Amino acid sequence: MRPLLLATAAALAVGLGSAAVTFAQSQTAGTPLRDVASFSRISDPQARSVALFGEIGKVLEHPRCMNCHPASDRPRQTDARRPHQPLVVRGPDGHGAPGLQCATCHGAQNYDPARVPGNPHWALAPASMAWEGKSLGQICAQLKDPARNGNRDLAALVKHVTTDSLVLWGWDPGEGREPAPGTNAQFGALVQAWVDTGAACPPS
Fold first, then answer.
1. What is the reported pLDDT for 29?
2. Domain residue spans of the chain
3. C-alpha 43, offset from chain centre
4. Which H, E and C letters describe the chain, residue by residue?
């Protein structure tokens, strides 16, 4: 059944015309991230914490993350963050609507011949974690709020961004998609340093 579905996805990609050309461009290196040590000259811990989160924001606001944290119930796709084609919606649990769930087309791993990304846990982020259209300060407040972030404290948040396979996918997105900035190790170090300096948020 899966090969037929993937073949259908491939046909859809071909039918998208110029959009598919953009989507199928060769993967390029992601934007670099500053190392944690480069923030050591900021003596005030709160100011350093805010600056660290500004660097973290390069990842959070990148299409690899933002596409799955949309403001609506429709995911985004491609580096241009276009509305998902074909039309799909979040569904009751983030895995799509009954009869057209994410796993209908998205397998456990990337399928590069059809330009279909994949992960065993492919899904949209909870609606409470919608980032699209929000300031970095607002995103920061969401990340710190256990009522919106999956009941995670700051230590659990660091673990989530460094071990969750769908988060890690952002640095291995498959052909035609730019990876998230830097490396996950660099990102995790920045998040830990942000926590260690008080987890201060930029102004909203």
1. 59
2. 2-196
3. 31
4. CHHHHHHHHHHHHHHCCHHHHHHCCCCCCCCCCCCHHHHCCCCCHHHHHHHHHHHHHHHHCCHHHHCCCCCCCCCEECCCCEECCCCCCCCCCCCEECCEEHHHCCCCCCEHHHCECCCCCCCCCCHHHCCCCCCHHHHHHHHHCCCCCCCCCHHHHHHHHHHCHHHHHCCCCCCCCCCCCCCHHHHHHHHHHHHHCCCCCCCC
Q: What are the average pLDDT values for consecutive 10-residue runs of the chain, which has 204 residues?
A: 43 36 42 95 97 98 96 94 94 92 95 95 94 96 96 98 97 95 97 98 93
* DSSP β-ladder status, 76-77 and 82-83: antiparallel
- Structure-token match 């998205």, residue found: 106
Q: Which own/partner contact pairs does 41-48 have at CB distance under 8 Å and 24+ positions apart? A: 45/197, 45/198, 46/197, 46/198, 46/200, 48/197
**Residue 76 bridge partners (DSSP):** 83
How many CB atoms neighbour CB 167 within 10 A?
21
Q: Which of 191, 141, 201 is nearest to 163 (CA)?
A: 191
**145: CB partners within 8 A, 6+ apart:** none
Cα separation, 72 vs 130, whole angstroms: 8
CB 59 within 8 A of CB 170: yes
